[in-house]
Amino acid sequence: MLSAPEAPEPRGRYWPEPAPTRLKVWPAPFKVGKVGVLLVNLGTPDEPTAPAIRRYLREFLSDPRVIEIPKFVWWPILNGPILLARPKKLVHRYEGIWMEGGSPLLVYTERQAAGVRARLKARGLEVEVAVGMRYGKPSIRHAMMQLHNAGCEYILTLPLYPQYSSSTTATVIDEVTRVASHLRDQPAMRFVKRFHVDPLYINPLADKIGAHWAEHGKPQKLVMSFHGLPQRCTKLGDPYCRDSYETAAALAAKLGLADDEYLVTFQSRFGPAAWLQPYTEPTLENLAKSGVTRIDVVCPGFVADCLETLEEISIEVRETFMNAGGERFNYIECLNDDAPWLDALTDMVQRELSGWPIRPD
Q: Matching Gene3D superfamilies, A to Z (predicted)?
């Protein structure tokens, strides 16, 4: 397993190569380099404290792909009311979901990487697997350099976002290629753009929901809550909204649901601008007031549980629904480190590595 402490970013336009790649005797016999896989997720604070949350939010909300507002307008807002007040408000929310080993997002992403690594090894394939977070630690640069220093001349980047968006997948690609731009000896690179309707994703998710229903019974309505996005981004051509509805349709078809048995909503809106609708929390409140008393909620835009699922949905939205007259609210967890998902994720990785010279283990 690749592991090393984070180091400051090297100075200079091109970074020094690791010693093992510098030929001491030339010419030398050519040896095919290793194949590496980089699993990337959004990121998380290092700890549930205001300073750590502030560092994370500063990096996250400084990304122009995330906040498409001119810097001279956004900078005073970010460094004023947001970073001064919001971190303190989030401390108790992070404390409520924190796991041994860190935040759920990081813990489950690392378990996913370990599961893929072990399964590839069991299949007789020598593939290095590293985890990078777009914001926070371990950084994408850190993970890329681990793979590079391990001799990987081929790197597959798999952003763990089922649906594509400029503010998620695209910014991962930006950062991976930025790091590569500093390397003299660049690897061959591939990227997985989306897997929103891939049976390798839809099937294990549908099976998990089906298993939950076999034990607890079906609800009156299955709510599929996706992370929100400003409506302006969709109008400018971001395909995330379309991808989300395609995921919902594929999942509903696999579950055999009629159109009136499920509902698509969007959560986690931020700021005063209009975001994708219908919004999750007010929609569930209205459902309860209209007589819908039993619902299940699943978040198909996430493959690992995090603040937005475990706190926002399972605690805050649950409370809103129950206070409005609901009687049963079940949040169905993300795929996390479920064995069927790790099997499917490994299949996906192996498929995307097709044609590259993977050494036998």
A: 3.40.50.1400
Statement to judge: residues 46 and 179 lie in one domain: yes
Q: Can you give the residue range of the structural domain that contains 297?
A: 199-332
* CATH number of domain containing 87: 3.40.50.1400
φ and ψ at residue 356, rounded to 5 degrees:
-85, 150
Q: Which two structure tokens, joined as six digits, stand for 172?
A: 């991962």
Give the residue among 277, 240, 260 at the shortest CA–CA distance from 159. 240
Question: 240 and 296, same structural domain?
Answer: yes
pLDDT tens-place values along the chain, 361 residues long: 566 678 888 888 888 888 755 555 555 555 668 999 999 999 999 999 999 999 999 999 999 999 999 999 999 999 999 999 999 999 999 999 999 999 999 999 999 999 999 999 999 999 999 999 999 999 999 999 999 999 999 999 999 999 999 999 999 999 999 999 999 999 999 999 999 999 999 999 999 999 999 999 999 999 999 999 999 999 999 999 999 999 999 999 999 999 999 999 999 998 888 999 999 999 999 999 999 999 999 999 999 999 999 999 999 999 999 999 999 999 999 999 999 999 999 999 999 999 999 878 7
Instruction: Report d(CA 130, CA 150) in Å as an integer.
Output: 11
> Torsion over CA of 219, 222, 227 and 229, rounded to 10 degrees?
-140
227 is in an annotated binding site: yes
Q: Taking the model in full, what pTM does it have?
A: 0.94
216 annotated to a ligand binding site:
no
